[in-house]
């Protein structure tokens, strides 16, 4: 039997550097080890070892280093990584980014604990994503279907309602009659935004279907880095131990990346593109790749990260690297938002690469994939017609192009626009799509089965038709 490790307290603090404590004369301490920092007043703070080299240890302080006196600190290490209790007790709770209660309740308890860094899913044991997660948003469910086990980010810019959309999805998302839970992780939120999230998700949290981890902008920056890791740790246990299908909504990943950049600068690391650390790609991948399904185990973890692109720049490191790791994207459009349409989804820039794994015959509706393909093609033609009209005038358009041009406003207001309080079933979403498509001549609907178009043209769309 291995003897129990006796904690050793270190007092040799070399310096405080931003949110970091640098200790000298350290031995037997490992990377990612959890530590307790005791101040002269008796206050205790907590930290995680970032680096150990030549007797030096760099420790991230989760509560920040404000008010610390380097000469009066005592640091003890636990000998194990940072872990949090896991289990169904998280459901219905509102906590901060490190898992401490924000709702006035007792600390979250669990029969077991799990390290927040998690364990990567063995590629051999990964089961391909399958079956849809329905969000109640027509543009998502009909055109860019989210699939269980998928990672599908939302790309937005400042001023667009990405927080409203992420909260609406968290409030409405469901699976077909199976146990389903939501973990909502907010990073760098203003207090007004945090209040909005709590208020909007209160009903689902009270029903025991959702937990919230809310990190506000004035919380320590280290907590912001911890927030998505705690959220994923909670989700993994709910999915793979309790057999639930879990959707993890993480917003805003750009705030997370900026926190990572701040800590990297404090560590004195050589910066890479736009001053972000060179390991930004692998760090994001360590989060996104924790979702999925495991062969032989019930449940799934689906991730919906939300990120804002500074100045709408898709080549910015955060959206650029996210695009390499994830399986598609939902892009929000300033132009659609300016037209007063919510949600302002740009369907032609959005894509779900796993849509065929979770939609179509035997999964959603037999006409789902055909309708999505036909509507996307029609939108592309409508955009071309609009560009031609700007160059040569509307009089230069062919009759067919004029029909496509007239179709676009119908798409915006009769399909896309649904408001923040409308939860659409998949049948309602697809029927909306049919109504838009039937404004076009039958000759333009070549991607749909002829007999289906004929019956729709003769009878008109109806709710719930398979």
Describe this structure in words.
The structure is a single chain. The chain is of the alpha/beta class. The chain has helices at residues 138-143, 162-172, 191-206, 221-240, 253-266, 280-288, 317-325, 334-338, 355-358, 368-392, 399-416, 426-437, 450-459; strands at residues 9-10, 13-17, 20-23, 33-38, 44-53, 56-61, 74-81, 83-86, 94-95, 112-115, 126-127, 132-133, 146-147, 154-156, 180-189, 210-216, 245-251, 293-294, 300-308, 328-331, 351-352. An eight-stranded mixed β-sheet has the order 9-16-15-17-19-14-20-21, sandwiched between helices. Strands 1-7-4-5-6-3-2 form a seven-stranded antiparallel β-sheet, with no helix packed on it. Strands 8-10 form a two-stranded antiparallel sheet. A hairpin with a 5-residue loop joins β4 and β5. It starts with 8 loop residues before the first strand and ends in a 7-residue tail after the last helix. The model has no long low-confidence stretch (mean pLDDT 90).
Give the number of helices: 13
**Largest sheet geometry:** 8 strands, mixed
Structural class: alpha/beta
Could you estimate the helical fraction of the residues in percent? Answer: 25-40%
Blueprint of the fold:
Elements: E1 9-10, E2 13-17, E3 20-23, E4 33-38, E5 44-53, E6 56-61, E7 74-81, E8 83-86, E9 94-95, E10 112-115, E11 126-127, E12 132-133, H1 138-143, E13 146-147, E14 154-156, H2 162-172, E15 180-189, H3 191-206, E16 210-216, H4 221-240, E17 245-251, H5 253-266, H6 280-288, E18 293-294, E19 300-308, H7 317-325, E20 328-331, H8 334-338, E21 351-352, H9 355-358, H10 368-392, H11 399-416, H12 426-437, H13 450-459
Parallel strand pairs: 9-16, 14-19, 14-20, 15-16, 15-17, 17-19
Antiparallel strand pairs: 1-7, 2-3, 3-6, 4-5, 4-7, 5-6, 8-10, 11-18, 12-13, 20-21
